[in-house]
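// run 5 | inverse folding | seed 20
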């Protein structure tokens, strides 16, 4: 049954009698080498672990209405509300008053020690009942819980115990009695004292008279704490208006009468969450307080000697940014010493009060100020759900759903609303339709689209509601079939590694059947049942982190008290059942043979090749043409090597014979084996046009009338590899594609450097970089250039890269092609987070002498 979240007062009644000082050995988590580890603790310390874990759960939830208190019996002194009023009930102390637990509560519980005085558990229970009743008064909606922890070795005064049981039932208290080494189904204590035997029998008799009572051993209680706990809580319902036939202002016809346009039916309803996404707890940073900021921690009693921590909170201050012309001279004369960039402290201007600031948004290179009154456009309607249309249930796609599921039902206090909503729901069922609604979940919130599904039950009718995207946010993507393969002649391929055969399909079906989990488990009667149960499947990321936090809070010394292993219920679904794996082995081997599964070796980095090798000498190593001319030279697709040789001699000769070579290549390609178009799309081929000669020896051929393929424009780009600079300038003239052109250019430049014959296209790549930097600075797309240069430099300096000499040319040019600095960006009304010092270091060429002798001013 769902519980109300929070609104609970739990009283812990703890036995601190001398018998609780008895020691025992408990098993710890295995060591790093699998060795067994144990720890000696007292019975009291063992029982307090349960209390600490329960209190930690309350702190973890963070609800102010989830409170607790601690009563000790067997203490030397007496301090409780009954003794102060009427006397009696000695050796019972109200140790921690009822309040929301904090870290200090855990410290106080950890400081509890056994005493030398025996206590009466029933006295402690009665004091807890009275303390709880006094605190809550007549709050009947609050949940009352009392947990008693004892070893049962102290004598009990059982006079009038029936009255205590009646009082617990009258106040609807949920009682729990946890005994150290109490007998249960799996454990029977040997050599038990007569006193403990009598007390156990009494506790069983007491529990039988209490309507809500649980009795168990401490071992069972700690095991249950380790079990992932999923609490079903009763969500808070919100009042909402469901509108039918209502026209919103943007839907009203101008010629229609306003009174008629807004007529409709309004149904009073209530909506609440049905599901809620669970996520791991968000971690916070804490810092140990110093002695000067202990916040009167020394006055806390008792002094448990625990460290006092405080959360690290963010503090925001606003300073004026000093203008460039007003900076001090010494700021411009900072020498480029090692470590200056990391230790450099930004210069801050005058402190500004947050109330004197105005919000602003950057539109292009202009800052647009926005008043507080215009901060957000308010919505006209309050909390509501207005039906704007219907759709057939068969046409609704599962992937339209977004977020959580809500339940929308009629107001239980309005019979008219119940009849109206029930009629509406049953009409939807008859027509087999879903309702599309405009949903506003809070006052002033942005409207959202949602879909409502009708649910008809014996007791009531209601709607399930879930958020769906707007029509503009829905994207449809189509992908070609993996089985529908065609060769270059357009004919369907029947034999191909990607085309499945009947043998493959049969082998896969048999393997899937062998892995069936629907009857892989057995119930209590031995009948087969599904192996996987959704209700018993827990998220390890959530519960394991929770266990680690709780354990670390209770046991700071993790070396001597390591985190216990995860509960078996948490890990039972992480691996398939062994019997299912065993029975599917033969089917799996047949499947591997049918589809010819092979182990894919890990990718090996390029082999190191000797740089000082005479080209005229024959070596034992094979000569790879791709090392010299790129992958085009060895591939079956594209122009022949003879054509590539012609292009090096004269671009005019290459252009005259291009058409003939294309026809010849096409005839050769038509005769090749079947290929998968999808595979070729995933691995785009290299240029089909010979690389034009970029040397000053002859004029550069024009790209007029060349097709997209001849200009070597890769899929998804607007800039080709054959004429990148011309493509870049042409696209800038066409329209608002600056960012796209810059991103494509950042991909093309490294490719033309890699594909360059020797240093043939280096100058062209430098020209492209200059133009790209200029455009990024003028169009306020500075981040694209700076990110590109960082990545390109890293690639050029990577071990084994064959074009390291290109970066030497970049460094020789200097700051004209380095990162765009904040000063340059400010001139063009843009923004850059790069300082002059950082820009110099990226392009620095003079080594240590440069760092020791030159200043920033010398660079310009």
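// decoded
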């Amino acid at each position: 049954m769902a519980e109300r979240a929070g609104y609970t007062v739990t009283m812990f009644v703890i036995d601190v009698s001398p018998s609780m000082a008895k020691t025992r050995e408990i098993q710890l988590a295995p060591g790093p080498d699998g060795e067994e580890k144990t720890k000696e603790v007292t019975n009291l310390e063992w029982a307090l672990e349960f209390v600490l874990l329960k209190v930690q759960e309350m702190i973890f939830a963070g609800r102010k209405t989830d409170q607790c208190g601690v009563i000790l019996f067997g203490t030397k002194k007496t301090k409780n509300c009954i003794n102060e009023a009427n006397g009696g009930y000695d050796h019972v102390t109200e140790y921690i008053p009822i309040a929301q637990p904090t870290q200090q509560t855990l410290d106080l519980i950890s400081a509890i020690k056994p005493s030398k005085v025996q206590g009466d558990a029933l006295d402690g229970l009665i004091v807890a009942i009275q303390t709880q009743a006094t605190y809550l008064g007549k709050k009947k909606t609050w949940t009352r819980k009392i947990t008693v922890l004892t070893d049962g070795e102290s004598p009990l005064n059982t006079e009038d115990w029936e009255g205590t049981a009646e009082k617990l039932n009258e106040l609807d208290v949920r009682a729990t009695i946890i005994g150290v080494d109490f007998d249960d189904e799996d454990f029977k204590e040997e050599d038990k004292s007569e006193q403990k035997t009598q007390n156990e029998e009494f506790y069983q008799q007491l529990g039988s008279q209490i309507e809500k009572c649980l009795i168990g051993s401490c071992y069972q209680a700690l095991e249950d704490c380790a079990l992932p706990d999923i609490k079903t809580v009763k969500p808070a319902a919100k009042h909402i208006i469901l509108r039918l036939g209502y026209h919103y202002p943007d839907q009203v016809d101008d010629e229609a009468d306003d009174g008629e346009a807004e007529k409709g039916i309004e149904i009073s309803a209530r909506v609440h969450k049905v599901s809620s996404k669970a996520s791991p707890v968000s971690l916070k940073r804490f810092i140990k307080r110093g002695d000067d900021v202990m916040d009167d921690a020394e006055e806390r009693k008792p002094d448990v000697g625990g460290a006092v921590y405080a959360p690290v909170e963010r503090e925001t201050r606003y300073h004026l940014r000093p203008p460039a012309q007003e900076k001090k001279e010494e700021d411009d004369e900072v020498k480029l010493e090692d470590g200056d960039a990391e230790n450099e402290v930004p210069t801050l201007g005058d402190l500004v009060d947050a109330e004197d600031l105005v919000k602003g948004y950057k539109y292009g290179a202009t800052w647009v100020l926005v008043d507080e009154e215009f901060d957000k456009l308010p919505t006209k309607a309050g909390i509501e759900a207005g039906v704007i249309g219907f759709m057939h249930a068969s046409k609704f796609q599962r992937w339209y759903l977004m977020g959580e599921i809500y339940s929308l039902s009629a107001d239980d206090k309005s019979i008219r609303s119940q009849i109206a909503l029930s009629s509406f729901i049953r009409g939807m069922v008859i027509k087999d339709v879903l309702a599309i609604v405009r949903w506003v979940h809070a006052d002033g919130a942005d409207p959202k689209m949602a879909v409502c599904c009708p649910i008809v039950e014996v007791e009531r009718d209601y709607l399930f509601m879930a958020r769906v995207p707007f029509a503009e946010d829905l994207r449809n993507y189509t992908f070609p079939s993996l089985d529908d393969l065609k060769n270059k002649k357009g004919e369907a391929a029947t034999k191909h590694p990607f085309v499945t055969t009947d043998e493959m399909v049969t082998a896969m079906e048999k393997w899937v059947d062998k892995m069936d989990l629907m009857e892989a488990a057995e119930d209590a009667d031995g009948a087969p049942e599904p192996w996987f149960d959704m209700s018993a499947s827990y998220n390890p990321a959530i519960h394991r982190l929770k266990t680690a936090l709780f354990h670390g809070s209770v046991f700071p010394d993790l070396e001597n008290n390591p985190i216990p292993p995860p509960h078996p219920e948490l890990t039972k679904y992480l691996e398939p059942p062994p019997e299912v794996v065993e029975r599917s082995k033969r089917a799996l081997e047949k499947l591997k043979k049918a589809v010819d599964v092979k182990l894919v070796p890990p990718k090996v980095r390029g082999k190191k090749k000797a740089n000082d090798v005479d080209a005229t000498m024959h070596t034992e190593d094979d000569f790879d043409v791709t090392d010299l001319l790129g992958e085009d030279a060895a591939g079956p697709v594209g122009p022949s090597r003879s054509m590539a040789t012609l292009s090096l001699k004269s671009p005019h000769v290459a252009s005259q014979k291009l058409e003939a070579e294309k026809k010849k290549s096409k005839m050769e390609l038509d005769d090749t084996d079947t290929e998968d178009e999808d595979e070729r799309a995933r691995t785009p081929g290299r240029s089909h046009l010979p690389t034009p000669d970029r040397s000053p020896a002859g004029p550069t051929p024009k790209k007029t009338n060349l097709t997209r393929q001849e200009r070597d424009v890769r899929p998804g780009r607007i800039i080709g590899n054959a004429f990148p600079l011309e493509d870049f300038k042409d696209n800038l003239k066409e329209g608002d594609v600056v960012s796209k052109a810059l991103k494509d250019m950042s991909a093309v430049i490294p490719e033309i450097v890699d594909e360059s014959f020797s240093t043939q296209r280096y100058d062209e790549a430098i020209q492209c970089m200059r133009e790209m930097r200029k455009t990024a600075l003028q169009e306020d797309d500075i981040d694209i250039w700076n990110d590109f240069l960082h990545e390109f430099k890293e690639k050029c300096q990577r071990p084994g890269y064959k074009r390291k000499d290109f970066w030497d040319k970049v460094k020789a040019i200097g700051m004209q092609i380095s990162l765009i600095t904040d000063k340059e960006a400010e001139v063009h009304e843009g923004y850059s987070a790069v300082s002059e010092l950082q820009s110099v270091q990226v392009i620095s060429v003079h080594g240590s002498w440069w760092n020791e002798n030159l200043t920033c001013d010398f660079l310009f």
